[in-house]
Design goal:
Blueprint: E1 3-5, E2 11-13, E3 18-19, H1 20-27, H2 29-34, E4 35-40, E5 43-45, E6 50-51, E7 55-61, H3 65-86, E8 91-92, E9 97-98, E10 101-107, H4 114-130, E11 134-138, H5 141-150, H6 154-162, E12 170-174, E13 177-180, E14 195-204, E15 213-221, H7 225-240, H8 243-249, E16 253-254, E17 264-265, H9 267-286, H10 300-306, H11 308-312
Parallel strand pairs: 1-7
Antiparallel strand pairs: 1-2, 3-6, 4-5, 4-7, 8-10, 9-10, 10-15, 11-12, 12-13, 14-15, 16-17
Helix pairs in contact: 3-4, 5-6
């Protein structure tokens, strides 16, 4: 008979095991409708998670940062589902949450186009309207590998084989689409109404330039239409202040393919650089800092330790002449 302690300190008693969804419904119909997941003893779980012993519980909604991340992760799966509906030959790989959104990488015979994104977004909204239930199943490792291989999803099979043996393998299904994921996820596709696909980029499988170039679709998802509109406005304003545009407009610098990501400074731009550099040196001296200089090219191991590699490697310049840069 579990006692459930809620964030306000109140305790609800149950005579038998109870799901997070049932508790949310007992608290109030409004909370139940807004529920996305639960946090049981500080661990995020799906709404259908069953509690059988004394526990603490918080109901997660879109008002929580964790709820917004669940929306974005679930929308990444929605994106993959839509892509498989339209392009069955595409293979799915990974789809994590990132700042302000998500992405999903696909192996496909050609690059996706802006026209493709329009079709995919439309299909995503169709799946939202179907309000498909999202269910979790713990699956034996060998069975999961066979499932994905039988469906031509070799990347997913490879990912499962790399999961430590002590970790369980969980699959999430919605309609006819099944994906590998730890979860938790929104309880149904109907919860995922506020999203927009932003762009397509290339990304090497596992960040290794020796591997296949995949198609990465970026998207954003929010709790309300107002939040989405505000985000898109921020992007629009930032675009007006894009340093690449300003550099050209003010004749400060330019970029060219001979040195991706490197700046070719023009006289006015270089004069500005030197002025800032001299000011910084004066501040260093005034506050007793010492100046050093580090190498321009570094082994990727440093970026793995710092976390930059995991988050930004698709935008980093890799030098093939350094074998460790992969």
């Amino acid at each position: 008979m579990p006692d459930i302690r809620l964030p306000d300190g109140s305790i609800r008693q149950y005579k038998e095991p109870v799901t997070v969804a049932n508790i949310a419904s007992d608290i109030g119909e409004g909370l139940f409708r807004a529920s996305l997941a639960g946090k049981v003893n500080d661990q995020l779980v799906d709404l259908n998670f069953e509690i059988s012993e004394n526990s603490t519980l918080s109901i997660i909604t879109a008002k929580n940062l964790e709820g917004l991340e669940i929306i974005r992760h679930s929308t990444a799966h929605l994106l993959a589902h839509a892509v498989k509906e339209i392009y069955p030959e595409a293979q799915v790989t990974i789809g994590p949450v990132i700042d302000d959104g998500f992405y999903y990488d696909f192996s496909y015979e050609r690059p996706f186009t802006p026209e493709d994104l329009t079709l995919i977004e439309k299909k995503m909204m169709e799946l939202v309207k179907q309000n498909l239930s999202v269910t979790k199943k713990i699956t034996p490792r060998n069975e999961a590998v066979k499932f994905f291989k039988d469906n031509g999803e070799n990347y997913k099979a490879e990912i499962i084989q790399s999961i430590p043996k002590e970790e369980e393998v969980s699959l999430y299904s919605q309609g006819n689409f099944t994906d590998l994921c730890r979860g938790p996820h929104a309880p149904s596709t109907g919860k995922l109404k506020i999203f927009k696909l932003m762009k397509v980029a290339g990304a090497y499988w596992r960040g290794d330039s020796n591997n296949e170039m995949l198609q990465r679709i970026y998207g954003t998802a929010w709790a309300t239409k107002e939040d989405l509109a505000s985000y898109l406005l921020r992007l629009e304003e930032a675009e007006k202040r894009d340093h690449r545009k300003l550099g050209k407009q003010l004749d400060l610098f330019h970029l060219q393919d001979n040195a991706p990501g490197m700046v070719f400074w023009h006289p006015k731009g270089w004069a500005l650089w030197l002025q800032i550099e001299n000011y910084m040196r004066e501040m260093f001296k005034e506050y007793s800092y010492q100046e050093i200089k580090t190498p321009t090219v570094l082994d990727k191991g440093l970026w793995e330790k710092s976390g930059h590699w995991e988050s930004y490697h698709e935008n980093m310049l890799l030098t093939g002449s350094f074998s460790t840069l992969g």
